[in-house]
Amino acid sequence: MHIFPYLREQINSGKTREEIYRILDSVTDSRKFIWFPNAEFSGKVSSFYFTIRPEFGYRNSFAPVLTGTMTEKKEGTMIDIVLQLHIFVRMFIVVWSGGLFLFFLFGVLGVYMDIIDGTGGIILILVPIGMITASQIIMRFGFYSSARKAQKRLRELIC
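Structure (tokenized):
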């Protein structure tokens, strides 16, 4: 099991790399720091690679970043795609989980050294475990649900 959710996919398309570039470019808004994009995706598209993020019309911090490379083959184009969380979301989760892990360690050390009584120590041990578990469930649900939508739409566009 990975700490952060991600998906890897390979799509074979009968279209040329330039056709795929034009299609992706037509549905991608390349402006940075836009609050209300008027396209299906936002990001950067070139004729060899793309880094795009789906726009669902609502804020979703766990929406995937799709990074893909396009390779021309005899029968069409092969697109290698990696879907992963945005780097700032990953950094936040590391800091958040690290802080919770410290509270967990304080609880374990407090109970072990008899500094904290049984009930307080149990709470200091169980609450961080529960919060880390809840954050993993929320992160994975948010990521995979939006990643599947983005994958489906991308396949519709380029296949």
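The chain has a mean pLDDT of 92. The beta strands are 6-13, 28-29, 41-45, 49-54, 65-73, 76-84.
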